[in-house]
Amino acid sequence: MTKLSTTIMILWLLLCSHAFALPINVNTATVEQIADALYGIGPHKAQAIVDYREKHGKFKSPAELARVKGIGKGIIAGNQGDIIVD
User: Are 37 and 24 within 8 A, CB to CB?
Assistant: First the structure.
């Protein structure tokens, strides 16, 4: 395998990693778990989700994540099916 094909394979695996992620319960997950599981959510936004949850209580639906600063409808739609609130 050439260096170029190895690099392409690694990039492909990194880009596709979210496609194979398991759904995440945003009411119980840690900052790291949320950041790893949800597309478009890094550590800063994941921390904002946890902070909001601790201040306001559990989310009743994935749509409620839009109340968190920095989380828009596009992020929620991009993770549809991967967000659990049970």
Answer: yes
Domain assignment of residue 53, given as a range: 22-84
Strand locations in the chain (E): 24-25, 83-84
Structural domains counted in the chain: 1
Q: Which two tokens stand for residue 81?
A: 């099916």
**If you ran DSSP here, which 8-state letter would residue 65 be given?**
G
- Classify residue 35: in a domain, yes or no: yes
Residues 6+ apart with CB under 8 A from 56: 67
Task: Report if residue 64 sits inside a domain.
Answer: yes
pLDDT tens-digit profile, the chain (86 residues) = 787 766 776 655 555 555 556 899 999 999 999 999 999 999 999 999 999 999 999 999 999 999 999 999 999 999 999 999 99
Residue 40 lies in a domain: yes
